[in-house]
Amino acid sequence: MSMKLLILGLLLERDMHPYEITLVMKERSMDQIIKLQMGSLYYAVDKLAEGGHIETVEVIRSPDRPDKTIYRITDKGKELMEQLILQQIKKSDPPYHPLYMALALSRYIDQEKVAKLLEERIREAEHQVNFAYQVYEEHISLVPRSSLHLMYGRYEHCLTELKWLKRLYDDVVAGKMSDKGSPIIDP
Amino acid sequence: MSMKLLILGLLLERDMHPYEITLVMKERSMDQIIKLQMGSLYYAVDKLAEGGHIETVEVIRSPDRPDKTIYRITDKGKELMEQLILQQIKKSDPPYHPLYMALALSRYIDQEKVAKLLEERIREAEHQVNFAYQVYEEHISLVPRSSLHLMYGRYEHCLTELKWLKRLYDDVVAGKMSDKGSPIIDP
DNA sequence: GCCACCCTATTCAAATTTGAATATAATAAG
DNA sequence: CTTATTATATTCAAATTTGAATAGGGTGGC
């Protein structure tokens, strides 16, 4: 659903063809917030077009390349956008975290392997934190606060994740993952 | 994938039938970490059985109810488990957050509606934080640290989310979502 | 000058997830 | 006593996501 929302949001600014949407997404590092899968994008565009929420402006044909189909958002599309936004704000699935599951079971396997991988993860998480903060800082005077909240929120979530990974790592190398009885202490 | 991991993990403790797995999941509030959809569960069980990672122990037939098929994990299944755990730790997609997208676009629509929904969200988030903390506290002396990290991590993530929602809410009621130029301040 | 890789643009089959339907029994609420 | 909800157990069609395939053109390096 949030792919549809993204498409509608971008078409609000100007008419585009699907591939162009991917470019804009990358430019604005939106691909960090919503997974950019070509298949899903084209699928969502088709569905929106079927439903009359977006419509074809023109098809650009050139002999060597695939046709470009440029779309525009319709009034129906703008209504759908409002609905989708409200719907998304409303529904609050808890943040599912695939690593949680893996970590709970990780004590059954070779702790050295786990530690190695966690190190990599921590390094990546550090990059993500830095990057997210940079993106935030660079946009302070450029984008409306709604977008800024998004960037700052991403920074904070990444930071929370990083701290968690570090605690895990410490326990793994200390061989404590199977211990019982002691609470987790914040650094 | 993490559904398969969950199934393998639980079958490690004892043989079960799929429905029983759902019960254990709820008991341990694992349904907060991984979405519990019956369809997905049965699908994953079928796939695991097909691949020889789990096998049928017995089928209990009773006249009035559907048959219960009880499964056990195989050696091949234990190997798969190790692989899946390492794989999950390795791959680090950034935490996709569907609300981010919605919020970035929310300034285009009626701010009062947004504020109302955010209030509800905040209330829910508060419950989640409290619940997550309770779950953590109650398990301190009962489960190994690997599981405890999971619970504490969940608490922290929920807390980060809550703070974020509150900042958003403040800006929405102050009508600042379209403003530019000022940084986000932590409370 | 050619090899390898990235860019442009889209399509497709296969895997997976979703959401609801099925059918019966037990328990609770009024 | 009757109606509503919850528990038992699984299945299925439809929607969606994934991951890779396609196919020609441009670009940088050696």
UniProtKB/TrEMBL annotation, chains A, B:
Q: Which UniProt keywords apply?
A: Coiled coil
What highest taxon heads this organism's lineage? Bacteria
Checking Gene3D superfamilies in the record gives: Winged helix-like DNA-binding domain superfamily/Winged helix DNA-binding domain
- What residues does the Transcription regulator PadR N-terminal domain cover? 7-82
Q: What SUPFAM superfamilies does the database record attribute to this sequence?
A: Winged helix' DNA-binding domain
**Coiled coil (UniProt feature):** 108-135
Check the record and name the InterPro entries matching this protein: Metal_resp_DNA-bind_regulator (IPR052509), Tscrpt_reg_PadR_N (IPR005149), WH-like_DNA-bd_sf (IPR036388), WH_DNA-bd_sf (IPR036390)
Q: Which PANTHER family match?
A: PADR-FAMILY TRANSCRIPTIONAL REGULATOR, TRANSCRIPTIONAL REGULATOR RV3488
What is the recorded name of this protein?
PadR family transcriptional regulator
Organism equals Paenibacillus tritici
